[in-house]
Write a structure and sequence with these properties.
The protein is of the alpha+beta class and 186 residues long. The protein is built from four helices and four strands; from the N terminus they run H-H-H-E-E-H-E-E.
Length: 186
């Protein structure tokens, strides 16, 4: 049997004071632990940030060293490299806008040339969109058929042939000028 179980030596106000002190002690210790954890977390975040900044600076230094090894003094940062790439893409877009599909042009042109016509030269000036072609025709009729084929083709407009090309009946040397059709650039 426990004799002390029923003995109460403390008054109710003293019990409240002890309980309050116990809660204060627990609260104070919990606050200390929370503040300590916050300090530890803050310090770890600060040192992590410092580490990342250092690694970022090292990475930028490595990039700068690589660019210096390439010998291209125009490129000094990633932003400059990006700007140069964008300028190159813009230049390529301009070139592609003025591109003519020459393969299909020459395939179509070859279909226009009848037997008996020999083309010696074809000069194309893309600045003023003109063409000059010269060659020989075996007969006047062959030459006229070739001239008609050029005039009705989708490759050329304003086909011009001097009258002197029609003086001879056979072995006709000719020179023809024409404008390239606008459709070639579409």
């Amino acid at each position: 049997m426990n004799l002390y179980k029923g003995i109460n030596l403390l008054s109710a106000s003293q019990k409240r004071v002890i309980t309050r002190e116990r809660y204060n002690y627990i609260t104070k210790n919990a606050s200390f632990v929370i503040v300590s954890l916050l300090v530890i977390i803050t310090l770890s975040l600060y040192f992590s940030q410092m580490l990342l900044v250092g690694q970022s600076e090292n990475l930028q230094q490595q990039i700068d060293d690589e660019l210096a090894l390439k010998g291209d003094s125009r490129i000094t940062t990633i932003n400059d490299a990006t700007n140069e790439l964008n300028a190159t893409i813009a230049s390529v877009s301009v070139i592609q806008a003025n591109y003519i599909q020459w393969t299909s042009f020459f395939v179509t042109f070859a279909d226009l040339v009848p037997p008996g016509i020999r083309i010696n030269s074809l000069n194309i000036d893309t600045d003023d969109l003109s063409a000059t072609l010269s060659g020989t025709a075996t007969t006047r009729e062959t030459y006229q058929a070739f001239l008609a084929a050029l005039e009705t083709s989708t490759l050329f407009t304003s086909v011009n042939s001097p009258i002197s090309n029609l003086i001879q009946k056979e072995n006709i040397s000719f020179t023809i000028t024409a404008q390239l059709a606008d459709e070639l650039y579409e």
